[in-house]
Amino acid sequence: MTIEILEFVEGAKEATGLAVIIDVFRAFSVVCYASDAGAAKLIATDEINKAFELRKRYRNAVLVGERDEKRIDGFDFGNSPTEIIKTNLGGKTVIQTTTAGTAGLVVASNATTVVTGSLVNASSVVKYIQTINPEHVSLVAMGYRAEVSAEEDLLCAELIASGLKGKNIDFEKKISDLRYNSGRRFFNPENIDFSPPTDFFLCTMTNRFSFVLRAEERFDGNIDLIRIDI
User: Fold this and answer.
1) What CATH number is associated with residue 143?
2) How many Cα atoms within 13 Å fall on the side-chain side of residue 181?
3) Which residues 6+ apart lie within 8 Å of 191 measured at CB?
4) Partner residues linked to 168 by β-bridges
5) Residue 195: which residues within 8 A CB-CB, separation 6 or more?
6) How far is 193 from 172, CA to CA, in rounded Å?
């Protein structure tokens, strides 16, 4: 098994084999919490107008997402696990669009299999990949706004890669230290309304969930996220 680490939308386009599209802060942590909160269906899209169109097709649909980290006007929730964890999403269709993560899913068309990646289900991602045993794995760190390398995404990629290689490395300190680099923004009082400190802790609860979310392209070009329990 060969493993490569790529970044941003360009990396998602280049990804081949089994691709893990990684967005720790916060998109692919949020959808894990949404699934755990009972969501019956998860749909990812790259554009705001597509999200509104999708909501018209589904009863009990809610819109989740952000631009510039903030909740989009007309959306039910921002891209915040703190909001999601307090909500009962039983039977609802969750439609998500974000600046980085969902954009990566939509363009990863050269990969044979695509799953989301985050710290909250990293070990399950490793187990899922080992079950499939692909020849090539592309770990795509989507980065901050898909433009700037993000320590948390690269760290998640490193954690998954080490698991696949059978290396027993303790990442606990590196993960907690994210608070002092890429996670600093969660502790800025000016951001508390849309990006509270609890988001940081919820996104860094490593291996909280024992499932993966596999991406499947829909007839309309958007992405269904299918939960696979591990």
Assistant:
1) 3.90.1560.10
2) 14
3) 69, 185
4) none
5) 69, 80, 185, 186, 188
6) 28
| pLDDT (tens digit per residue) in 25-54 | 999 999 999 999 999 999 999 999 999 999
Q: What pTM did the predictor assign? A: 0.97
- Residue 12's domain spans which residues? 2-229
Assigned token pair, 219: 């007839």
Structure tokens at 64: 């989740």
81 alpha-carbon distance from chain centroid: 11
Distance, in Å, from the CA atom of 44 to the CA atom of 132, rounded to the nearest integer, reads 24
| Domains contained in the chain, number | 1
Cα separation, 176 vs 192, in Å, equals 20
Find all residues with CB under 8 Å of 130, minimum gap 6, and list them.
164
| C-alpha dist (Å) from residue 76 to 27, 58, 62, 63, 227 | 15, 15, 6, 5, 22
4: which DSSP letter?
A: E
Question: Which pLDDT tens digit goes with each residue over 47-88?
Answer: 999 999 999 999 999 999 999 999 999 999 999 999 999 999
Cα distance between residue 24 and residue 202, in whole Å: 10
